[in-house]
Structures are given as C-alpha cells and as structure tokens.
Design goal:
It contains 10 helices and 5 strands, in the order ααβαβαβαααααββα. It is α/β, with parallel strands linked by helices and 272 residues long.
C-alpha cells in the first residue's frame, strides 16, 4: 500500500489549487474591466464621480440571484442589500441603515424586495429543519409560515415552499413600509415606491407579485389583496378557494395606512 502524502504536502496542494482559483477571478476581473472600457470609454472615470441609482434591491444572499445581471443594470444603477432569505426586521440596523442611505442620500425612486423560488431559508422555515445559528434568523419566516398556516396547509405540498416564498416577500414589503425611514420619507412628500417581486432560478424570470406601496393607499388592504392573489395562484383548480364569481372575496375593513396586517385567524383576516 502506498504511504499517504504528508499533511504539509496536502495543505500545499490545497493552497495552490485555491491560488489558481483566485487567480482566475483576478483574470476575469481584468478582462471585464477592459471590455467595459472598450464598450463604454470613460465608464469607470464617470463611475468614480457619482452614485445615482434609481433602484434599491433587497434580496437573498443566494449566489444564483445577482441583482445587476438579472435586471440588466450596470454598476452604479442599483443599490443592493442582501441577506439570508431577503428579510427586513425592525431590529436589523444593517438593513435599515442601508434603506435610509438609499432613500435619504441616494434618493432612489423604487425599492424592490425580491425573493426567489427554491430559497433554502424558506424551505428550512417551512419544514422546521435545524441548520444552526441561522435558525434564529429564519424564525422570522417561520412567523410568516405560522401566520398563514391555514392557507399553506390547504395547498398541495409541492407548492407550499413557493407560496411561502411569496408570502415572505409580501411580509417584508410591509416591514419596509412601516419602518421609520419610509414613514418619514412619505411624510415629507418624497416619492418612493416599494415593490414585491420573486425570481425564478429555474427560468431566470422575475415575477411581479402585484404589491407596490407608495404610502398613498391603506397598507392593510393592499397586503390582504396580495395574500389572496398568492393563495389563488398556488391552489388546485376547482377547489373551494377559487375565485367567487370570478372575483376575490371583498377584503375586510382596511386598517389605517402604516399599520401592520392583523394576524391570520383574527377577525380582520377572516377572508384569508
């Protein structure tokens, strides 16, 4: 039997392989930079002078969901914040600081909260799978799951993760909308709209979930309408949850703008 290679040799080999891989990244960067300068002479000198994006993208950290490539935007055209499962919570100063910078300093006109089908964080939240420290973060999606458990339990098992992905996006749109950053921005008349989207890793396409909030309409009614659309979209044809007379059931009385949605199962959520 051949003796095993010394540990030092194995470490050296691994380091060389890593070095080769990192060298590839630098080579690709140089090629990209040269191509950009050929296609758009002076591009980088112009980029240094200003950052004036019209868009902010709040998305998942998943490596398959790159904001610029998906939207066809160049560097400098979209301001990006990403985390596991595109969550925005009121205690996350990182996300809130990014939103404030985008709204107050960059003056973005659109904030897109973008989930993606097949999200590992959403799947773990749906199944209750333990994955480590991130369980505490994913707990926020489990709250969304529990809030809509009646709907999710009524759906075919194979589509529940996709439905929860969209429900999570709707929830995060609400969280952005009720943040002090957005309340203050709309209060001073700044025009900023928050959108809920989802991305299909399987086909490369963005889906507009029909939830766009600009501070001018009751948030509760818009949220409930989005939840109903998600429910109909993922339900089996012909089930009792199909549209009544071709139209969604009339929403419950809307709460004042900026007020978070009522929990599922309460009187305000009876239609869900």
């Amino acid at each position: 039997m051949t003796d095993a290679a010394p540990i030092e040799t194995l470490h050296l080999t691994d380091n060389l392989r890593m070095s080769d891989s990192l060298d590839d990244l630098f080579a690709h960067n140089r090629a990209w930079s040269a191509q950009m300068e050929r296609d758009k002479p002076g591009f980088f000198s112009g980029l240094v002078k200003q950052q004036t994006p019209r868009y902010m993208w709040i998305g998942c950290s998943d490596s398959r969901v790159p904001a610029n490539q998906i939207t066809g935007l160049e560097p400098g055209e979209v301001f990006v914040h990403r985390n596991v499962a595109n969550i925005v919570v009121h205690s996350d100063l990182n996300a809130l600081s990014a939103i404030q910078f985008a709204v107050e300093h960059l003056k973005v006109a659109h904030i897109m909260v973008v989930g993606h089908y097949g999200c590992a964080g959403v799947k773990a939240a749906l199944s209750g799978t333990r994955i480590g420290l991130a369980d505490n973060w994913i707990r926020h999606i489990q709250d969304v799951r529990d809030r809509h458990h009646v709907m999710l339990d009524s759906l075919p098992e194979e589509v529940r993760a996709d439905a929860l992905c969209e429900l999570n996006v709707a929830e995060q749109v609400v969280n952005v909308a009720v943040s002090t950053v957005m309340v203050d921005a709309w209060g001073r008349g700044q025009k900023v709209t928050i959108h809920g989207w989802s991305f299909g890793v399987h086909d490369g396409l963005l889906q507009d979930l029909g939830l766009s909030v600009d501070g001018g309409k009751p948030l509760e009614a818009m949220y409930k309408a989005a939840v109903q659309r998600i429910r109909y979209k993922w339900s089996r044809p012909g089930e009792t949850v199909t549209l009544l007379n071709g139209k969604p059931p009339a929403p419950a009385e809307a709460a004042p703008a900026g007020q978070p949605p009522a929990p599922e199962g309460s009187s305000a959520q009876a239609a869900d």
